[in-house]
Write a structure and sequence with these properties.
five-stranded mixed beta sheet, eleven-stranded antiparallel beta sheet, Rossmann fold
């Protein structure tokens, strides 16, 4: 098995990188059968974006502070663990953001696409699903669309639902909503198109983010699932991502 190891800059990750390369060898990522990621969820997210198009599975080992997307760290029997691991396919979200000045930006998100107010003024946002207006004017700090893999991240902290993998749905979750008071979000089919239109965008500027990519002063944001992109992640059979998502709902 040809393994490419990549590691965050943390002391733990770098120390483990040295040990594992010495034990199992090292190849370039484009020549590997699997990419082993050493770090936390933040570095895994970075790696998923970096190697998204190489069509090589990624196996994470927890060497950071947060490791929801990572397997437990062990030095022994790594090739055997990888061979026995369960496969999980992730599809990112595709964001098209139009700025007030007419500029357009495109980006991909593995966790979520979110809109956030830029000033102390609350955001006013129209919510459209498949071309139909569902909320004429959402007033609050913002709104997001989260994937199942990202449902336990920012989405969960905003009181959004935890979504098990394989359900082919997305979470639409408001961020500190003021109006409408009783709306706490929705679950929609993953093939649906979401459009957020920013109202009073000059007085109430809004920024859009796709994971770590940010566009400020947006006027409109469209979001769809990029079904043509498949990201393969590997998880130990006894501790796979779907189990973690289910368990998170009982924490």
């Amino acid at each position: 098995m040809k393994i490419a190891f990549v590691a965050s800059q943390s002391e733990n990750a770098q120390k483990s990188l040295t040990q594992l390369v010495k034990r199992y060898g090292q190849v370039e990522t484009d020549q590997a059968d699997v990419i082993v990621v050493l770090g936390g969820d933040g570095f895994m997210l970075h790696s998923l974006h970096q190697y998204m198009y190489q069509k090589i599975p990624l196996f994470g080992l927890r060497r950071g502070t947060v490791g929801f997307l990572m397997n437990d760290y062990q030095k022994d029997d790594l090739p055997k663990r990888i061979q026995q691991a369960k496969k999980t396919i992730l599809h990112p979200l595709s964001m098209t953001a139009e700025k007030v000045n007419g500029e357009e930006f495109n980006s991909l998100a593995i966790n979520e696409v979110s809109l956030l107010r830029q000033t102390k003024q609350s955001a006013h946002i129209e919510v459209k699903i498949n071309g139909q207006t569902k909320i004429e004017n959402l007033v609050g700090d913002g709104i997001m669309v989260a994937t199942p893999a990202g449902s336990t991240a920012y989405n969960l902290s905003a009181h959004g639902p935890v979504i098990p993998l394989g359900t082919q749905v997305l979470a639409v979750t408001p961020i500190s909503p003021f109006r409408p008071r009783r709306w706490r979000g929705a679950i929609i089919p993953s093939h649906a198109e979401v459009c957020f239109k920013v109202k009073s965008h000059l007085k109430r500027p809004v920024a859009a983010t796709a994971d770590n990519f940010e566009v400020r002063d947006v006027k409109q944001v469209k979001i769809t699932e990029a079904r043509e992109i498949e990201i393969e992640m590997l998880f130990d059979e006894h501790h796979n991502l779907e189990d973690r998502i289910i368990n998170e709902q009982f924490a």
